[in-house]
Amino acid sequence: MELKTKAQAGSFESSDVLILVEPVEKGAGRIIELKSIVMQQFGDDLLGQIHANLDDFKIDDVRLIINDKGALPPTVSARLETALKRAAQLQSGTLK
Amino acid sequence: MLYIPGNNPAMLQQGSVYGADGVLLDLEDAVALNQKDAARILVAHMLKYISYEGCEVTVRVNHIDTPFGLEDLKQIVPLQPDALRLPKVETVDEIKRILELIEQIEDEHNLPHNQMNVHVMIETALGVQNVYDIARYSPRIDAISIGGQDLAADMQLVKANDGVGIDYARKQVVMAAKACKIDVFDTVFVDVENEEGLREEAEYIKKLGFTGKAIINPRQIEVVNEVFTPTELEIRKAAKIVKAFERNKAEGIGVFAVDGKMVDAPVVQRALRVLEMADIDVESL
């Protein structure tokens, strides 16, 4: 998947997560800024899930800004997938 | 059946805890146009992860002629929820076209054609006129529902909340469902603060023959369940009729009296329905 533009998905509502995706230069790696209300207990799990999802989409270079409000794993995966597809311009709803 | 907006994670994950018989994960009217993609992906992930045990799970997709309808089908059909709800169906050709698409997607995923049911929503005057032919088109269609808000808009009704303008449509839709022996669900009651109004409407549509009612807020569940659950008195009366029927049947008597009222086959049938709704096994009487 080729990321072409900045995009976001999700919200600051309880049980949701807001994810901002930004394309970066090839070789820059995965730059992930993660904030979560359950950071202490689930931060590592959340980060592990994000990496696994990025692996699934074969994305090695990206900047992610993630603000989690206690989202369940399916919500995290869904919001990341939506933001990535918007950034790749495969979906509508891209941040202008 | 509790409507849950498809782009609301908190509500999606809690949907089954309120005691509704079914949940409807909505990709259509409850989702903003610029969030249709997000809702579709979220509902797909939730269907794989959340157990809605004890609740029938239905997903309402967008109409096939919108820019979102086909993608909704492609993402949701492979997940095979209990049912798929198709909004604003108006003609037989339309339902034929949508069912063909659904079956095409099922074939691509090696899925059977008889696992996931289809609910049809009637929400326009044209749909009301064609409802019987639509409902009987396929055995996969196991329920019809009436969408009062869209129907009122289509009929250009200014005042719609008293139900007068859609009364004919309600009766037409019920009759079509009964003729096809399938379930029929009434529209939502939008004034969530008005519990008495909801009760009156639920009692009215129960009398018309509706199987159940769509709701938009968990606080409406109790009222609708109370109306649709047989009372103790109704259950006792039904049990008495069925027991009397069994006794009389053994003696070759088809028509008899219970508490001074004539009982024949249709009365017994209604009594059996009451017991069925109360989850009472006739054999246990």
From TrEMBL, chain A:
<dbReference type="InterPro" id="IPR006495">
    <property type="entry name" value="CitD"/>
</dbReference>
<protein>
    <submittedName>
        <fullName>Citrate lyase acyl carrier protein</fullName>
        <ecNumber>4.1.3.6</ecNumber>
    </submittedName>
</protein>
<dbReference type="GO" id="GO:0005737">
    <property type="term" value="C:cytoplasm"/>
</dbReference>
<keyword id="KW-0456">Lyase</keyword>
<keyword id="KW-0963">Cytoplasm</keyword>
<dbReference type="InterPro" id="IPR023439">
    <property type="entry name" value="Mal_deCO2ase/Cit_lyase_ACP"/>
</dbReference>
<dbReference type="Pfam" id="PF06857">
    <property type="entry name" value="ACP"/>
</dbReference>
<dbReference type="GO" id="GO:0008815">
    <property type="term" value="F:citrate (pro-3S)-lyase activity"/>
</dbReference>
<keyword id="KW-0597">Phosphoprotein</keyword>
